[in-house]
User: Fold this.
Amino acid sequence: MTKHKHGNGQGKGRGTMEQSMTLKKNKFILVALLIMSTFITGCWDYKELDDQIIIFGTAIDYNQENKGIILTAEITLPTSSGKESNFSSKIYQGKGQNLMDAIVDLQSKAGRRLLWSHSKVLILSEDIIGQEKLFVGIMDWIKRAHEIRDTVWLLTTHEKTAAEILQKSNPQTQKIISAYLDGLFLAGKSETFLDVHYSKFIKDLQSATVCAALPTIRLEDSPNGILPLLDGTALYYRTKEVGWLDGKRTRVLLLLMNQLKQAVFVPEPSDNHKVNGVSLKMDYCQTDIKPILGPKGLVMEIDIKMEAQIGEIDGEQDVFTPDKIKKLIKGAQSEITAQINELLQLLQKDYQCDVLGFGNKVEAKHPKFWKKIKNRWPNEYAQIPTAIHLKLSIFGSQESKEVTKVGP
Amino acid sequence: MSDSIEQNEAFFHELFKNDDMVVYRHFENQSDPAIKCCAIFVAGMVNSEIINENIIWPIISKVLPKKSQLPLEVIQTQVIMAHDVQKTKDLHKLTEALNTGNTLLLYDGAVEALIINTQGWQTRAITEPENEKSLRGPKEGFTESLMMNLSMLRRKLNTYHQSKFKFKSLGSRAHTKACICYIEGLANPAILAELEKRLDQIQLDGILGTGYIDEFIKDAPLSPFKTIGSTERPDVVAGKMLEGRIALLLEGSPVALTLPHIFIEYFQSGDDYYINFFFSSISRIIRITSFIFTISVPAIYLALTNFHPEILPTPLLLSISAARQGVAFPTIIELLVLGFAFEIIREAGNRMPTTIGQALSIVGALILGQAAVEARIVSAPMVIVTGLTAVTGLMIPGLSGAIIILRFIFVILATFIGFYGYIFGMIGLLLHLFDIRSFGVPYMTPLNSLNLQDIKDTVVRAPWWYMENRPKFIGIMNRVRQSPKKF
Assistant:
């Protein structure tokens, strides 16, 4: 047979025999290490998907009996028969001294390993937020557990227990409640609730001045069953709930937070305004809050730019004359400004809750001034005057300028 | 050899004892029966017309000079009407000539014999190669006849004297004729010398196909990647020779070898150069993505579902989880079983008469696909994964061997440590590819280059007017491809 030495011709510069021997030895060691590390490190992370229970959402309640935790989890049960796949969910409960304990309990009840990485929502009851020790433990667990994500949506409820939301509600468009809520948050078109995920909440919670806020969920009866309804915002100072804003006020809050992208403005029925019954569809809202340090002291200047279209005209009226449009704008502006003023009054005087982050803004813009007032910030906050500059422009109608009439 | 025709014939009789293919034909001149000849040839390898009309007829019926004035030289120069006649007494040459379709002419009184070229055997007609079809390129492919192949090549390369075709006999017992083809001034003499050196070291008794040579002379004998290219198309060979490569053709093999062969050549199809460069670039990108897909998809699927389910979008996770409910085997077993089943079908399809092909596809699609899913032996996503892997794997025929091995290695690595395993595998693959060479040319040339001129014929095929230079390293003797000067 041929004794063919490969690459002999190109062997120049490859070193002497000894060098090539060490090279070979090194290569062997390298390959051995690679193979060894593969086999030593491996395998116990191998988990079949169908051996795991996918947790989609959880609700946490305070257990009065043993001063512990009740953990309610919504788990999915994907099944497939022939060509169809079916997704439904089941509710399991685990109890324990703290969250870890409750998870162990839940796991033994569920019978399979729990997969947390696709957990979408975490509903915290009023009671559990009030229990500072347990509550901090929950927040800490989310931070430490490597599977659950920092983007899990947090929400709270004023119902008796948080578990109820998962147990009772029956959203008609989705079988899995958590997926329904996740879809609502992800759609990003919320007008009546905030979307707060863990990383944002924990940041606000740890901040010295900013007030943390959570969206609230409640159950509403309907002929087809009980519906979960996201509506309103709960405001917290540390773990104490200092106030609650309903859906309408939440919309104004969102506007001030510059998180409102699209909104519908329906005027309050009153006799004050000449142009009534014209609803606006806001397509663009831009809010800018600037702390201005003037001769009279600190003033928060709130600049809002809004662009809107005419969405619906109730009743037969022609509003498309320049004159009427002007009136319409004026009326809407003053109404929105009034709403903002009311909310600011509520936040500053009644709740004393800096959810808009005025403190941070002052600190960023006027650090020297901030050092002076830092210690008496809660008192200062309630006193800060605000100046609202709202600029609303209406640039057209949704479809046509024709007035919808009944009969000739 | 002696000067007696009887003795010489008896000698050949003795030499070719028990070989009934050898025919001995005696004849004498009509007017001078002393002029005795004997033609020896192998039946079936000769063109009998030439023997009849150009050898036997002139000797029998021509009026020839007296025998004393008629030496063998005169017969060679004045009587035999054949284009190639040689005179020799070398027995080795004579027997070799006999075996390649030549006729030996023994002449009474001469110690030498004539070798007359009367080759004429049946060959396959020139057809388009099945494996390398072309839309706009020439529709001819190599056949088993070396001379026919070389003629096809030579017609394409009218380079005055610069095209060189050098014959070589390979195989210590079977003596197969091979031809080294190159263009002088373009091919690197160092590579040429190295090729000849390696060819000379082959001591196997018979070389029946170019695949034998490939294995003997390749640079990385244990690598699944080829460092010597192969093609059935004369236009491809001509194109590669014009880039400075060397081709090796073998009698009896319709596949020519070209060298040096670099990695990117796997993805270059002959058709790329005939169709619009936009389209050929797109198909090249598809080929390269397919290669990456076919080696990666099973490993990535395994890593995603069993190690890193958090990366999957939730609806996909649910759907995979639903499909896996009730499946008996772990994902890795599913993957290996289904992959193996596909390889069985592929191999069966290769070996089977075409008439049964239809039945095979039904068996494959229905029984192995649908029924296995419904019986919960495998899950539905796995069928998709295997299907995608299989389709993309079939796109690059030259790489299929390497693909099977790589896919398997990646899957095993991913089974142990998920994505890390896959990445380790990829790193290892790249290290290997950058490590090996083909006749001194780095295998991954010019993929590591940042020069636009170097990479113009790699992932995309640049328009012809932009390809000013020959490929790096390979066309080192004369880099300029486009020049107004006539060579």
